[in-house]
Amino acid sequence: MCPLWFAAGIARPKHGLALATGLQAAPMLCHWVLGVPAARQGLMGLSLSFPTQAEGKAVLITGCDKGFGHALAKQLHAKGFTVFAGCLLADKNGDGARELKAMKSDRMQVLQMDVCSDQEVAQAVDFVKRTLKEPEGGLWGLVNNAGISTFGEVEFATLDNYKNVAEINLWGTVRVTKAFLPLIRRAKGRVVNITSMLGRMVSPSRSCYCISKFGVAAFSDCLRQEMYRWGVRVILIEPSNFVAATGILTADGIDKQAEALWSGASDTVQEDYGREYFTRHVALMKSFINSGLKDMSLVLNDITDALTSTHPNNRYNPMETYWWVRLQVMTHLPTAIADWLYVPGATL
């Protein structure tokens, strides 16, 4: 087994850390000795792969109303892909869908798509089949991006909170993937699933979200192993904090969720935790609204690489150095040590 500092290079994004030059050979050695795929990128972000041609290839993206999905649709279109942009509010002429339609390009196809609706997903498949210039050639890429975020400690979160987040983040991903897999297999293409660093490590008050993202990661890992025989690559994108860039959390949304959490809690929970503690916690969540990276290019470029590289990584970690180091600590060190370092109140 590679030592920890060897393994650290495996999931590091291609814009990697500027480590000592002598360490660049470490992942390459792992590759030749142990067959570790990540040696393609190296600790310095060295890639041995070459881009595939976008011309003639089509990609479907979910969640294109805003955030990563909206920006990615534009970026892939600019690179020559035909883009099927699934929008939740396309039928209501939402801002994001309207902006993409305004491009008036045959290679930008905007379609109504609620990932929680079997009917709308089936209609999306039919639309893609009818629109592809060469349906027998299949669909090159599927990017499962649609998702929501929420918060709430376990004793405040209801089962409906858990189910609602999972229905979009997890079951939406499964539903869309199963529907489009025959087209992806035909093209020997790519399935790119957007999870999160919280799909591999956890954080207090984020259990609803973490469960959904851990689930997508497990689903993707299983699917990746099943799809090798078909020549299909299944890839995970695990971003860190891009709340400021995506607007996935808003003050109004947090206030609404907070009121529902408090009013839905039992008298015992309200008394034991206290309103003051709860209010401080809500204020903490609001402080995250403008936190994180404001530039989405790290994520967009990693997704683009996953779709265009002849040898894509199985995982990409677009994130700041702090979060990358924390992810390695929380996934490689004993949990007692990781908790002691990062969780208030934890003891060794």
Give a written overview of the molecule.
- The protein is an alpha/beta fold and 348 residues long.
- The chain folds into two domains: 53-246 and 295-320, NAD(P)-binding Rossmann-like Domain (Rossmann fold, 3-Layer(aba) Sandwich), CATH 3.40.50; 250-287.
- The chain is 48% helix and 9% strand.
- Helix 5 (118-131) runs parallel beside helix 7 (171-187), helix 6 runs parallel beside helix 8 and helix 10 (251-264) packs antiparallel against helix 12.
- The two termini are 27 Å apart.
- Mean pLDDT is 88; it is low at 1-47.
- Pfam families: adh_short.
Q: According to CATH, what is the topology of the largest domain?
A: Rossmann fold
Radius of gyration: 21 Å
**What's the CATH architecture name of the largest domain?**
3-Layer(aba) Sandwich
Decide which structural class fits the backbone.
alpha/beta
Instruction: Name the CATH superfamily assignment of the largest domain.
Output: NAD(P)-binding Rossmann-like Domain
Number of domains: 2
Low-confidence stretches: 1-47
Number of helices: 15
> What's the overall geometry?
globular
- Largest beta sheet: strand ordering: 3-2-1-4-5-6-7
Number-wise, the strands total 7
Q: Please describe the biggest sheet, giving its number of strands, its sense, and whether it closes into a barrel.
A: 7 strands, parallel
Q: Share of helix among residues?
A: 40-55%
**Strand proportion:** 5-15%
CATH class of the largest domain: Alpha Beta
Order of helices and strands: HHEHEHEHEHHEHEHHHHHEHH
User: How far apart lie the N and C ends?
Assistant: 27 Å
Average pLDDT: 88
